[in-house]
Amino acid sequence: MKRALITGVTGQDGSYLAEFLLGRGYEVHGLIRRASTFNTSRIDHIYTDPHEEGARFFLHYGELTDGSRLVTLLSRIQPDEVYHLGAQSHVRVSFDEPEYTGDTTGVGTTRLLEAIRMIGLDCRFYQASSSEMFGATPPPQNELTPFHPRSPYGAAKVYGYWMARNYREAHGMYAVNGILFNHESPRRGETFVTRKITRGVARIKAGLEETLYLGNLDAVRDWGYAKEYVEGMWAMLQADEPDDYVLATGTAYTVRDFVEIAFEHAGLDWEKHVRFDERYLRPSEVDALIGDASKAADELGWKAEVLTPELARLMVDADYETALAEVRSKG
Ligand code: NAP
Ligand code: F7E
């Protein structure tokens, strides 16, 4: 039985990836942060008591800032595949916390790579690189496009990207970069723009709220469905040779387009409910990200099926169920 370790298992992608790997018969280990409240809501449905016979999903406390803990865990778990998804992943927040973002999102990758090297572990390593690394470089962007990050988050991801490449070149490690464009789902964090919009639409339709405050509506993004993107992560680690791949839909929508699609799906007029708030602007913005994923299609057979309009609708539907449940619970 293959064994995988996922950092960031409590996040959007980590939860879908854990489900996917369990479905393929893997034993899955996840790194979680100790918190005073529960932070496992995205994985509770797949968790089983480790005492149960046949349990294949195990959680371990750990932190990307704690290198010695990573050494201990890796040597104990001995994974065949390491999916490094843990990160401070919010671009706007990275401007407020640049040092912390560099430490976790950037140097966290080095701690993990170095832990693998130190214990001589023979495993395959996936680095969650990001289209944010392209930043100001005009679209379409692919594996050969130069990086020009526009945020501390983007800069930290560029560092992580090059550390994965360096461990591949210098130490012969099987390390790959998945350069993923924005991918969303009903499990997306509530402060990323798609989820903020679909949750806002649902709560307005359910009568729980009236107004949705947003920043720059002109930014262009290539939004795909997270559940499909984790399959691409796995496919990258099954290739004969380690390489770097873009995953994207290749389609372009503005934030305003996403707003219109989501409100229209709920039968609402967005202009009556959306207001501008400058606090959601960034000191430097990424104007347009549109990915060219033809290498992943040709070499891995991966292709995005769910495009942005369908994605927006399925997210609104999921958030509306939750909003209705809240209405019912209030009696
Ligand atoms: P997410 O929902 O924000 O999840 C991030 C995960 O990292 C969470 O499990 C979080 O734990 C964990 N984490 C944060 N800081 C940590 C630390 N110091 N130590 C240990 N764990 C820590 O992100 P996502 O959307 O699933 O994205 C997964 C990865 O792909 C991230 O590296 C992200 O930067 C990258 N990425 C995402 C996208 C996208 O569009 N979603 C695109 C390109 C790349 P808690 O639950 O405790 O907070
Ligand atoms: O912003 C604009 C905002 O925060 C998208 C992360 O997963 O994808 C994500 O980063 C756009 C930006 O995602 C609001 O200015 C307008 O232009 O949803 P977002 P992001 O910054 O693209 C990349 C690929 C990652 O790797 C990251 O980890 O929407 N926008 N109004 C807003 N954004 C937010 N968050 N909130 C607003 O109110």
What does this structure look like?
It is a single chain. The chain is globular and about 60 Å long. The strands form four sheets. The chain has a seven-stranded parallel beta sheet with strand order 3-2-1-4-5-6-11, sandwiched between helices. A two-stranded parallel ribbon has the order 7-10. It has a two-stranded parallel sheet with strand order 8-13. It has helices at 12-23, 67-77, 91-96, 98-119, 152-171, 193-205, 226-238, 255-265, 294-300, 308-329, and strands at 3-7, 27-32, 57-61, 81-84, 124-130, 174-180, 183-184, 212-214, 220-221, 224-225, 245-247, 253-254, 274-276. Strand 1, helix 1 (12-23) and strand 2 form a beta-alpha-beta unit. It is an alpha/beta fold and 331 residues long. It is 41% helix and 15% strand. It starts with a strand and ends with a helix. Helix 1 packs across helix 7 (226-238), helix 2 (67-77) runs parallel beside helix 4 (98-119) and helix 4 (98-119) packs parallel to helix 5 (152-171). The protein folds into two domains: 3-184 and 226-247, NAD(P)-binding Rossmann-like Domain (Rossmann fold); 193-220 and 251-329, UDP-galactose 4-epimerase, domain 1 (Alpha-Beta Complex). The protein has ten helices and 13 strands. Bound molecules: NADP nicotinamide-adenine-dinucleotide phosphate and ligand F7E. NADP nicotinamide-adenine-dinucleotide phosphate is lined by residues 7-8, 10-14, 31, 33, 39, 63-65, 85-89, 104, 128, 130, 180, 182-183, 189.
